[in-house]
């Protein structure tokens, strides 16, 4: 796209020179593979924790409970074990702590350094998990995996949003979510295969194979340039200019570079991004950094992602059919993400948030009603095969809605709204909150299912209603706005405008084209 380097004096959105180069697409595709490790891990834990050999070796009491379930025992409670859930959720605690350190590395040494460090930690974690002899080794491996995703999720979305030209930022950033869904799907397939092995070590193959996506991301990141924004921030202006020229495919990048330089000079005035983010002019950013990842998790998506095989077993599918159902919902997740990639820069973020929200709400209520009616509160009822398939179909409708709304947007929108001085710190709040709520859901879900039964689905539906209202009222549209010009968006917003002071809107510069 040829932009005019227009300096808006009227609050209009600015356009820079340049076009979408194959170089920028290639770098973004490589960086997005960071989502693979996140996704592989999400997808692998649920399947592994439903494998008999794994349960027998590490969680024998859960294994016995599962075998004993049936007849008069409530199906709702058969997998309720805090130890078992701590296997899944320990990763998120580690991730949420490490992302704070990632923010410092990302700011001081660049986005690429954090990706490399994250990849290395993840590799080590997958090796330890693959040879684990006891629960302690399992948990140590999971902690290292957590450090890996803590760093990767902090750096990759920022990297993508900074590299991408504004008019394609949504689609390129969503490469991260695309890779996440591919990771989840591949993990589901691997579990399906290893679950059939019955050799006692199928789960080992599943967890050790996490090394493959880690290698892809780490090796890929070695060859990546850092973002011009980060290079400017670190005083490497010549390198920033050269990178910007290469990714925008033009020599004339002065307007964009100048905005980055100004953003970085602003950033230098701030010694501590953590206290800056608490200042009133950053209130809208802070609210989004907390609310968006929190709501993303309160959609309940990880109930499906972590526990789909367990959930499908609960509603009456057999072992293999349960793992297969997880593969089906995983495939829906991948394909539905492409809808978002194709439309986000055309229709904007809000349309997707709203459509996805309504679709999720309807399917959650329907699943709750079917389970409540036919499965009963005692959890001793049985679903007919037809109804069990209907529940699977409704879950796919729900997953599709998430995959083109809160899934990718939950990472995209926060990564594009922060000014440079608080960008790294802000993104680590996003990752921290995301992981905190992932942890809470992972830890509480099996217990909540045991107590709330089908009501759990209504609870998530209520959360979705609240977050949809939040989007309508408080989330601004960020489509096409250059990342270092985002303040305009708050200034024009009916509620947030009172927080953004006029001197926080950069003056326009009559720069040449
Ligand atoms: C979320 C994950 C979720 C995944 C599902 C991501 O955006 O952060 O928690 O498991 O989407 O595709």
Automatic annotation (TrEMBL):
GO MF entries = monosaccharide transmembrane transporter activity; symporter activity
Q: How does it sit in the membrane?
A: Multi-pass membrane protein
* Transmembrane spans: 20-40, 83-102, 114-133, 172-193, 205-224, 286-308, 320-344, 351-375, 387-407, 428-449, 455-476
**Stored PROSITE patterns:** MFS, SUGAR_TRANSPORT_1, SUGAR_TRANSPORT_2
Name the family: Belongs to the major facilitator superfamily. Sugar transporter (TC 2.A.1.1) family.
What is the designated name of this protein?
Major facilitator superfamily (MFS) profile domain-containing protein
The keyword Transport is assigned to this record: yes
GO CC: one term?
membrane
Annotated compartments: Membrane
Q: Where is the signal peptide?
A: none
For this protein, the record's InterPro entries field holds:
MFS_dom (IPR020846), MFS_STP/MST-like_plant (IPR044778), MFS_sugar_transport-like (IPR005828), MFS_trans_sf (IPR036259), STP/PLT_plant (IPR045262), Sugar/inositol_transpt (IPR003663), Sugar_transporter_CS (IPR005829)
Q: Which residues form the Major facilitator superfamily (MFS) profile domain?
A: 27-479
Q: Which UniProt keyword terms apply here?
A: Membrane, Sugar transport, Symport, Transmembrane, Transmembrane helix, Transport
The keyword Secreted appears for this protein:
no
Provenance organism: Ensete ventricosum
């Amino acid at each position: 796209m040829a932009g005019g380097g227009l300096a808006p004096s009227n609050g209009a959105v600015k356009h820079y020179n340049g076009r979408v180069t194959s170089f920028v697409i290639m770098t973004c595709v490589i960086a997005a593979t960071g989502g693979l490790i996140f996704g592989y891990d999400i997808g692998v834990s649920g399947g592994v924790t439903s494998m008999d050999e794994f349960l027998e070796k590490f969680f024998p009491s859960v294994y016995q409970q599962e075998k004993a379930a049936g007849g008069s025992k409530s199906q709702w409670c058969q997998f309720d074990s805090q130890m078992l859930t701590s296997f899944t959720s320990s990763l998120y605690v580690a991730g949420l702590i490490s992302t704070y350190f990632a923010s410092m590395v990302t700011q001081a040494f660049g986005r690429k350094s954090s990706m490399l460090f994250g990849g290395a930690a993840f590799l080590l974690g997958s090796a330890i998990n693959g040879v684990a002899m006891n629960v302690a080794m399992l948990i140590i491996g999971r902690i290292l995996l957590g450090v890996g995703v803590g760093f990767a999720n902090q750096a990759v979305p920022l990297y993508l949003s900074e590299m991408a030209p504004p008019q394609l930022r949504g689609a390129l950033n969503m490469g991260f979510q695309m890779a996440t869904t591919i990771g989840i799907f591949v993990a589901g397939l691997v579990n399906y295969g290893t679950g059939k092995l019955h050799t006692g070590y199928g789960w080992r193959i599943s967890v050790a194979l996490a090394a493959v996506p880690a290698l892809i991301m780490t090796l890929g990141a070695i060859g990546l340039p850092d973002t011009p924004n980060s290079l400017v921030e670190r005083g490497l202006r010549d390198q920033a200019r050269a990178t910007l020229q290469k990714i925008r495919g033009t020599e004339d990048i002065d307007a964009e570079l100048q905005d980055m330089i100004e953003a970085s000079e602003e950033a230098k005035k701030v010694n501590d991004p953590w206290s800056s983010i608490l200042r009133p002019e950053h209130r809208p950013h802070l609210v989004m950094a907390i609310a968006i990842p929190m709501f993303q998790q309160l959609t309940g998506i990880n109930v499906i992602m972590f526990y789909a095989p367990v959930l499908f077993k609960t509603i009456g599918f057999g072992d293999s059919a349960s793992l297969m159902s997880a593969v089906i919902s995983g495939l829906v997740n991948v394909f539905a993400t492409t809808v978002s990639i194709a439309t986000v820069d055309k229709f904007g973020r809000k349309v997707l948030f709203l459509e996805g929200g309504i679709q999720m709400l309807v399917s959650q209520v329907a699943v709750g009603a079917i389970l409540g009616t036919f499965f009963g509160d005692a959890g001793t009822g049985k679903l007919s095969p037809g109804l069990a398939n209907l529940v699977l179909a409704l879950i796919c409708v729900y997953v599709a809605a998430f995959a083109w709304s809160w899934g990718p947007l939950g990472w995209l929108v926060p990564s594009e709204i922060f000014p440079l001085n608080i960008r790294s710190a802000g993104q680590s709040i996003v990752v921290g909150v995301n992981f905190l709520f992932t942890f809470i859901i992972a830890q509480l879900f099996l217990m909540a299912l045991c107590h709330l039964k089908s009501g759990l689905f209504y609870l998530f539906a209520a959360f979705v209603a609240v977050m949809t209202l939040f989007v309508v009222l408080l989330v601004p549209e960020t489509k096409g706005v250059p990342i270092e010009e985002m303040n305009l968006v708050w200034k024009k917003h009916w509620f947030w405008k009172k927080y953004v002071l006029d001197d926080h809107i950069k003056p326009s510069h009559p720069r040449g084209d």
